[in-house]
Amino acid sequence: MPFLVENTFEIKGSNLGAIEKEAVLLRLENQLDDSAKVKISSPIFFLDILKKPLRWDTGYAGISARNMKASMIALGYYNAVANYKADTSGGKKVKVKYTVNAGKPTLIDTMLYNLSDSTLQYLAKKNPNKRILKEDNPITKTAVLGEINRVVDTFRNNGFYKITAAELRMRGDTTIAALTQISDDPFEQLELLNQAQLAREKPEIKLEMVLVPPTDSSKLQQYTLDSIFVMQDFRRGDTYTAANWQREYVPPGGLTLLYHKKYIRNGFLNRNIVFKPGQLYSQKDYYTTVNNLTRAAVWQSVSIRAQEKDSNKLNMILELIPGKKYGFEAGIEASYSANAQQGNPIGSNLFGVSLNLSLTDRNIDKRAIKMTHALRAGVEVNSGSGNAAGTQLLNSSELTYTNSIVLPGVSTLPFKCLKSKSPESFINTKLSLIDRFKLFQLQSFSLNVGTVFSLKNNQKLTLRPFNVELNYLNNTDSFKNIIAANPFLRYSYTTSFILGVSGSYSSVYYNPRHPFSLAKERVFRTNVEESGLTWGAIPVAEKYKSRYVKADAEYVYTTTYKNNNALVLRAFAGIGIPLFGDSSLPFFKQYFAGGSNSMRAWPIRGIGRGSQALAPFGTIFNDRTGDLQLEANAEYRYSIARIIPNTLTIRGAVFVDIGNVWNVRPTPGVVSDEAVFKFRDLYKELGMAVGTGFRLDFNYVIVRVDLGFRVKRPETSDVNNGWKLPNLSFNDAFGKLFTRGKNNENKLWRYENFNLTFGINYPF
After folding, report:
1. 236: buried, middle or exposed (CB in 10 Å: 19+, 13-18, 0-12)?
2. Are the beta carbons of 270 and 236 closer than 8 angstroms?
3. Count of Cβ atoms closer than 10 Å to residue 313 Cβ
4. First-last CA distance in the chain
């Protein structure tokens, strides 16, 4: 009995791009009848196994071809033809090839509205720039449904509470005159035939949206809001007409408040319930109110019911079930590092553990103000101290307290400069003490006040009109000696005080409205901050004050393909400019690269600055930070095997990282000339890494390991512009790379060419 082993697909006669064609091919594959699908399982990495082979049946292939034609028509290819050809040369193994001749897409010639109601007609045509169906664009089923839904939403936002998509129809006319007109004039007949030929080469359609008269005439009536009842501590079974409520009428918003016990203040409800008595019903106001109250996180459930009254009026009934006022969380973190070298007085194999506690009050003073207290206490011990003379058991300790206050609906700015319906302000305070035993103590304090504005289309703007940070460093004599031996650390470990303003902006754009597009996501983030120009001009702590301006931007573009494979492209650029004689940014504001989320062939803070030479192997400190960073990354992510359905999937990745960090200006004796950015040397001083990685995808968290090799090293830019591909012989791969022990030659090779990183979730 012949059985099906393979399906392939081909599209002809279309001008689709490569990405669009892949999306359409995936769509065609989804049109296969269940009895015509080849089921493949991959239990062990790249091994594919045919699962439950299906008996070959031409009937199911015919159904699949017809489904494909219907799918192409839904995309606007009204003249598409789909067929299949079965290859039976393999004996009982049958391979089927489906071919689709797409033809030309049908374009929209005109788009008209004929709704036989003056109000509906006006609303439908009110904002032509928001129309989804536009002249000279391909017609698709998705676009037609989108335009109907857009018009329905417009109506429901203007009082038409009951109207639905069932009351609207889209009509199309593709009549060709040559097929319907008869003429005795041969020249006129030739002209008609010529028009018919042009219509086949460029098919067009005339569209008209019409109103279907409903059986219920109230669907075409506008409704206004009568009363708004807010049951702020609703219990199951309560009704707004019950006599056991305490009632309060709030004139500014026209709200009728009902409560068993006062749960929230009136001002908060007035700010966040956007519909008012006497207004036309608006679906947009309905969802805005639901989102505002849900985001406050003081209610377990937010439900709004519309109750119809006589004379085209509605009562809005809010049923708000209170949530828990307090929240408590506790967690333990552990870390391990084996990067230290023999003779390092700071420690060898380091093991750290920390305890994290947080307590949240979600409704302070009945204003939906949220305050979170967080405490972190940790210690790091030298687990290898018994094997290295001169090392100590305790390496470092940390104690940090963080206080965060969120004020919903409040802006820290004294004027309305943005159209954001629900700004959210915050006050963040942090106190920290880090003790590196026998080296230094770092005491930190920060306070920043700002507002988050949620704008249209997933855009968010955060303004911090007041930002202060103090990092006070108390060095021991032994650490001062280390700094003297490593001059580049002089500006990385100093007391610094910043006082100024900052702001950030982010935008997320997902899945453009195009029928052929694969899943796409574009994320843009930018941050700007300063110290010493605004609040920092106040003469306070002048000895430690840092003065600078800093700006950076990041762009991430993700295209998701078949089977959740994805190509991710990222670009990052940041620069900080020290002002008024300062040599560099404060160390906690400088840029760095390397590690699991950046230049993965280098350890964290391990690349740069510029073409500056690497610290000699075995050096205690090799941290490299700078005032300027440029970086670009490309990563292709693919699926390998599904181990546990819906729980664990093994994925892989190949990546390329390019970038480096630099200083803006040289400082004699501290910042050498090769560490300073020069545009003429940019190409030579860019580092480049290639590598591969594996990920354990648990759906809710991803554990990954990345192996990176340096193919272009900035510190060797004088030789072949830095290109130095590792000589990956058999001895390199299985000797130098994985051999342990006291072979310093292999350790040096790994130090200069290779890095292995572990991370949680994707790097970007």
Report:
1. exposed
2. no
3. 16
4. 51
Cα–Cα dist 372/380, whole Å: 26
Q: Position of tokens 């759906």?
A: 699
Omega within 30 of 0 (cis) for the link into 609: yes
Task: State the pLDDT confidence band at 731, using cuts at 50, 70 and 90.
Answer: low
Question: Who's near 444: CB < 8 A, 6+ residues apart?
Answer: 430, 431, 432, 433, 434, 469, 470, 471, 472
Nearest to 4 by CA among 71, 58, 70, 76: 58
Burial zone of 301 (CB within 10 Å; 0-12 exposed, 13-18 middle, 19+ buried): exposed
DSSP class of residue 104? P
Region 168-194 average pLDDT: 57
Distance CA 318, CA 306 (A): 9
What DSSP designation does 106 have? P
Decide if 316 contacts 277 (C-beta within 8 A): no
What residues pair up with 635 in beta bridges, in sequence order?
568, 655
C-beta neighbour count of 600 within 10 angstroms: 28
Q: Residue 677 has what DSSP assignment?
A: -
CA dihedral (158, 161, 167, 171) positive or negative: positive
CA distances to 74, 141, 144, 172, 633 from 207, in Å: 15, 13, 10, 5, 46
Name the token pair of 37: 């699908």
Residue 366, both tokens: 């009945």
Residues 6+ apart with CB under 8 A from 92: 1, 2, 3
Of 241-245, 518-522, 572-576, which gets the smallest average pLDDT?
Answer: 518-522
- Do the beta carbons of residue 591 and residue 626 sit within 8 Å? yes
68 CB burial (10 A radius; 0-12, 13-18, 19+): buried
C-alpha–C-alpha distance, residues 708 and 540, integer Å = 47
pLDDT in tens, 299-356: 999 999 999 988 899 999 999 999 999 999 998 877 655 444 444 444 456 677 889 9
Q: Which residue has the tokens 């669009």?
A: 20
Nearest to 529 by CA among 563, 509, 503, 558: 503
Q: How many residues does the chain have?
A: 764
The DSSP code for 215 is: S
